[in-house]
Amino acid sequence: MSAPKVAFFDLACCEGCQLQVANLGEELLDLLGHIEVVEFRELMSEKWDGEYDLAIIEGSVTNEEAEEKVKEIRRRSKMVMAYGACAVNGGINGIKNKTPMEENGRIVYGDRFKDYPSMPTKAVGDIIEVDYIVPGCPIYPPEFLKVLKSALAGLEYVIPDHAVCVECRFNENECMYEKGINCMGPITRAGCNSWCLNNGNRCYGCRGLLSNPNIHGARDVMKKYDLDPDVILKSIDMYNAAAGGKDE
Amino acid sequence: MSKNLSVNVEFLTRVEGHGHIVVDMKNGKLNKCELKIVEAPRFFEAMVRGRSIFELQHITCRICGICSCGHSLASIQAAEDAIGFTPSEQTTLLRRIMLHLENLDSHILHIYMLAAPDMLGKKSALAMTATHGEAVRRALRMKKCCNDACSVLVGRHVHPISSTVGGFTKIPSEADLLEMKKHFSSIKQDLLPTLELAKTFVFPEFERETEYVSLTSDAGYALLNGKVKSSKGIIKDKSEYKSLTNEYLVPHSTAKHCKLSGDSYMVGALARFNNNYDMLHPLAKYAADELKLKPVCANAYLNTAAQIVECFHFTDDAIQIIDRLLEKGTDKSEAVIVGLNENEVIKVKAGRGVGAVEVPRGLLYHSYEVDDKGTILSADCVIPTGQNLANIELDMRQLAGMVCGRPQEEATLLFEMMVRAYDPCISCSTHVLEVDFV
């Protein structure tokens, strides 16, 4: 059996998730022993015109070219993985959706904004069917490896649907609310091993909201600690504006 | 000899971001010579308006994955400048380590993964594994050291977690410092074989008089502070960055171009090397000698060589800083509690501020205006690659005259190598464009 043909693609994003892949270090070499990377623009000049066993897409769809590109990738791929917040739920690219596109253009390009067309940010899954997702900004490399292995083995992978708080408690961090600070942990999907909390920062919700976030519970917590719910609404917007998080 | 040349490279590979090279010469007349920037704009300046200055670096570092720590540092410096906050000595030292890690990581990626395949006649670093397996493993090892040290210092390299306005949310312990030192020592070990490999590279011959712009300081090889210096004799404070960059729009690019004394200037490793050679660590000067690199060098292809020289400097400077911190011990009480703007621990006032930081590809500016609550009224970033675009095109024009008549494949490769030598970060250059609020 020949090694599965895997291709990496990037749309509007910071390319930090593919860097996370490149940063796997020598683990990357182990991985490369089992797959054949046929396209990876940032690292390779080679191109491939056949079918992909697995296409791994980073970044958001923000123009028609990108929309066509992901449709073509879908046609040519047996499996598609969206990785990173931009691809999975729009990520920070979604922030611009809160402002009319014309105004965004004017802010950045002045009177020449019409030369730089842009449409509201969409996640890859808004355009095509996606078989696997790896949320996060950036992706958490151990989770990426787990999802990739599942994809190569043809197994389903279910992203955790419990709060970041669960992992945060396991890591014995002091709760941000105990310090009087708003935190997105209670309503955000776990799976990152509470990365930001372990480093003294709060959760910004980059992995997206839980499928059934306990918004009322979060409100109660905020009330208990005398915190302003507006602050957390703005935090939700940071990564989840394109996913409709603000409607809650 | 033929006076015609047509080069069309769509989606140049082994660079960060999306760009095309288009060269069209007929009967010795150059009709077109462009690096077309086709990256989809992301409207960062529009995104940050109305947000708190304390969460800003969290968004701005996401302009670019490779330059994440650099954007974070420039963003924080601009924010602190705007509200009149002076960071502690410990914070400044830790930030210097963070910047060294950023510059090392990016330089190693460029030297080994993006530039070396051209020098060794390979399509990619993956193709190098068969013939230069040890070099590929060494590059991955060095990158891993940068990443692991970054994880210790700021949680991760891509989108650092603990570095924020006011300092760090987590202060490294003695054990953390020792672990970082171990990683830097390992990088140092791997730098000599890197130099040996680089000595086998044959850089294309090229020369064009160029204006070089970088930070400069009497205190050392300037990276995080100092004045802005041009090799044409200009020295100005960072607050005057607009008159140092003079941005303008061109039709074929979603990124703006820049100029200073002439039609273009260059920033980056070669500019820093040319402007601040005297301040380099002796080991870095030794590496420059070995690579036959002397200031002032006007061959842009040698930017990659200057990056290798800088790696020696960054590694040794980082080890010296760690030794200093180990001797004094770190003060954990300096840890910043996030959300402290909500508690008003750091005083906020209305104002404007500029951050100027030497990141892998050159001098990066962030500038913000905030109101008395620390809310962003306007933001502006000028990116190194954007500053280099006009210079890249002028180099390409001269190159077109030189290579016209050579076989297509050879000419195309020389153009690709020229653009790659600048290590352009196209994501950065279009993701951040100027915002002008009226």
Overview of this protein structure:
The complex is a heterodimer of chains A (248) and B (438). Helices cover 35% and strands 11% of the residues of chain A. Chain A is built from ten helices and five strands. Chain A has a five-stranded parallel beta sheet, with helices on both faces. The longest helix of chain A has 13 residues, at 64-76. Chain A is globular and about 60 Å long. Helices cover 47% and strands 14% of the residues of chain B. Chain B contains 15 helices and eleven strands. In chain B, a hairpin with a 2-residue loop joins strand 4 and strand 5 (167-168). At the A-B interface, helix 1, helix 2, helix 5, helix 8 and helix 10 of A face helix 1, helix 4, helix 5 and helix 6 of B.
How would the blueprint of this fold be written?
The complex is a heterodimer of chains A (248) and B (438).
Chain A: E1 5-10, H1 16-22, H2 26-32, E2 36-40, E3 52-58, H3 64-76, E4 77-83, H4 85-89, H5 101-109, E5 132-134, H6 141-153, H7 164-170, H8 195-198, H9 215-224, H10 229-240
Parallel strand pairs in A: 1-2, 1-3, 3-4, 4-5
Chain B: E1 5-9, E2 19-26, E3 29-37, H1 44-48, H2 56-60, H3 68-83, H4 89-119, H5 125-131, H6 133-154, E4 163-164, E5 167-168, H7 174-199, E6 213-216, E7 227-230, E8 235-236, H8 241-245, H9 269-276, H10 282-290, H11 303-328, H12 340-343, E9 351-359, E10 362-370, E11 376-382, H13 384-403, H14 408-421, H15 426-431
Antiparallel strand pairs in B: 1-2, 2-3, 4-5, 6-7, 7-8, 9-10, 10-11
Helix pairs in contact in B: 3-4, 4-5, 4-6, 4-11, 5-6, 6-7, 7-11, 9-11, 10-11, 13-14
Helix segment count of chain B? 15
Mean pLDDT of chain A: 86
Strand count of chain A: 5
Helical residue percent band of chain B: 40-55%
Strand order of the largest sheet of chain A: 2-1-3-4-5
Sequence stretches where pLDDT stays below 50 over 5 or more residues of chain B: 430-438
Computed Rg of chain B = 21 Å
Give the total of domains of chain A: 2
First-residue to last-residue Cα separation of chain B: 55 Å
CATH topology of the largest domain in chain A: Rossmann fold
Shape annotation of chain A: globular
Number of strands of chain B: 11
Seen as an oligomer or otherwise, the chain set is heterodimer
**Largest sheet entry of chain A:** 5 strands, parallel
